[in-house]
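Entry type: protein chain
Record version: 2
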Amino acid sequence: MSANSPIGRVVATENHPTSTGSFRFWLTAGVNLKPFDFVQVLPPENSDADIGRFYAIIDEIHQVSDEPSPLSGFISSDFGNSSQSPRVGRVVTTYADATVLYNTNDIEMPVPHGSRVHYPDEDGVRSALGIDEYHRNTPAGYITMSGPNDTSIVISVDMDADYLVGPEGAHLNISGISGLATKTSYAMFLLSAIQQQADQWESGPKPAFVVLNVKGSDLLHLHEPAQDLDDRTRRDWERCGLRCEPLSNVSYFYPYCADEPGRAQTSLPSNEVSANFDAARAYRYFYDVEHALERLHLLFEDMDDPAQTLVSCVEYCRENVRGEAPWSALRSNVSDWANSTPDKSRIPVVSWRRFYRLFGQRTRNAMFTELARHAADYRQVCLSNRLRLLQPGDVAVVDIAQLPDYLQAFVVGDVIAALRDPRPSHPDNEDAPVTERGTVVLFADELNKFAPRHGGARSLTGHLREISERGRSEGIILFGAEQFRTSVDDRVTGNSGTHVFGRTTAVESQKDQEIRMRPQSKRVPFLRKGELLVSHTRFSAGTLKLRFPRNAYRPG
């Protein structure tokens, strides 16, 4: 069969007619197709109407025969002798169900019976997906589909940055089993694509990025090229129109440690930490009393406090402690209040003692300290001040992996508050000119820890809801990832304009309505490593199965 020959014909039957949105077609013998493949449909040879070409995506493939029932097949094989060929030959055909995406003449009529089905061309598929109409193209991966003579057709796919990082739409959510779904890898690929393509955008925000590292040294080498890059990986990057290189303009923020300058609370070896300090790409963030009091309520996010007594203790501390006070003074004051109970009508003694116990335990970490005399040598900085100085294209990696959960929530809350606070500041030089901060993309893995569907962090969940609902107007875009979408607050995931599904369990795929309502939902538990189902606001196809290149940075 030549490359230009039809691979099948549209069939409209009494029971299954074609429509403006879907049709069936039988396949020529020997043709192999897969769900998520694209096809183009030309009108029958004898058609005089100028209806253009249709482009469609395959939903499912079936095979049917004229065998009336399994019993007749059993009988024709000598009553169940599977080693014997059936005595009666059967007529067998394969057919596919397809969804119409696009018509070149903008005609919305049923696909005519007898129309010729062909393999698609790359330009036609990109037009069918609406990619040609994007204002700011951002590579999202590539489709690998069946082609003539058992070859593959590979087509690069873009997202529209207007609907990914604003202003028309925003936010992305990635879900799937840990490891198999490659959630973090895909998020970092998109960040690299945005960073590389932003210089070519004619208008619109050019984002900066804040990345939360929550697992070991997973995201602590984003500036280092991978050591095992092969030709295939480089070709995959070039296929997407990108350079095969790690992220640039990367800075790392480790929790402060009071030991020698080369130490920090991180899983990185001390020699790598020192090398990053020497290269001026890393800092150690700390919290003095002034900055800690602003976020002190976040330390108790996971504690039950129905009467709001812990909140009252926090407010009392804010009202009665000066910001320039040392930590020893604050701890001494809290100890005194736990013994004397200064405002019994407002806060009972048992609440002060509970607050004193929790406060002492949760501020024992070395990052709660004062500015050192040799702060420059220690690379000691206030995290929120530094984040307010981000410029377009900058990448700030905030390491929280070595912190306990309650301190992770504290730091994440501080990061979100800093990004939402429009007041610029310059901690090193008050006379330095201040530039207006643009759009910031915040990537948070294990989103279920910070915005759980039931219980857990309360005001932090509220902050993430605010970002998902109004962050686009504030210039804050949330890229979130989690193993199970059903464990994350509905309002946080539901406001995402782009949804990415990696391999997950059959139970989760049935529990999650976002997955279950898609025609290909039953395939989610069987996705391979590196395969993702992607739903983007601008895709005319509801869901695409995409692949993406291996990351070009050194893995953790």
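Comment: Residues 425-435 have pLDDT under 50 and may be disordered.
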